[in-house]
Specification:
With 257 residues, the protein is of the alpha+beta class. The chain has one domain (7-256): Phosphatase 2c, domain 1 (4-Layer Sandwich), CATH 3.60.40. 31% of the residues lie in helices and 25% in strands. The chain is built from 8 helices and 10 strands. The strands form 2 sheets. It has a 5-stranded antiparallel beta sheet with strand order 1-10-9-6-7. 43% of the residues are buried.
Length: 257
Amino acid sequence: MQHLNPLVYTGTAKGPFRDKNEDSIGVIERPDVKNGIDAVYAVADGLGGHERGEVASSLAISMLMNVFGAENQHPGNITEDLSDFLYSTLCAISQSICDVGVTGESIHRDPFTAGMATTLTAAVLVGRNIYIGHAGDSRAYLINNEEISQVTEDHTLVEEQIRQGVISREQGKFLNRNVITQALGLDKPLYPYTSCHNLSKGDTLLICSDGLHGFLDDKSILGVMKTSGHNDTPKSLIQAALDAGSNDNISVVLVSF
């Protein structure tokens, strides 16, 4: 199997209006991942309006990294059905976060954890393939040859109405895009989005929370990436989002192949 040599750059910011940063970032690479996996990259964004969003996002990242960590000896070759494995893993993590948030035992320990939830966008690198597992409105993009493509599907009420043909994408620009329909930890079934993409030399993977993409469109994101060096790109993207009026936590994982 041919392997790429990824270079990883990350950044996160609380932003000027939030009291705390409820985003979490996770990165593990060989030799800290289990056999057959080259790396795992992820961003989680604790839901605003829910208690302890930072706990939910941190739990999601830590549980995901534990699943794919070298110490966790999962039976069989998970790379044979990795999209299915990612799907079931996100569902299991969601249930675990829900259990922590709503069980009588956890409420007795800490009443402020009830109802916590988070988005999660994860990318698992295997050779030249990147597997995406996703729930919520954080995003993953692939960038190459001056083109940017969103490789996740926003789980928001507006996007669902657009996909169903209820409203046009132009109409969706003027509606509240912050109503989440899928997130880990909610007390309802989760239906994660999964996909697989073949990578080429020169590709870049961007995973970010909505504090970034909610204030920078695809063209603006691409423009920042073209004018900054990789080392500075996360910081430059975060600053561009702040300059555009971002009032949210902002997190970026950038992987250059």
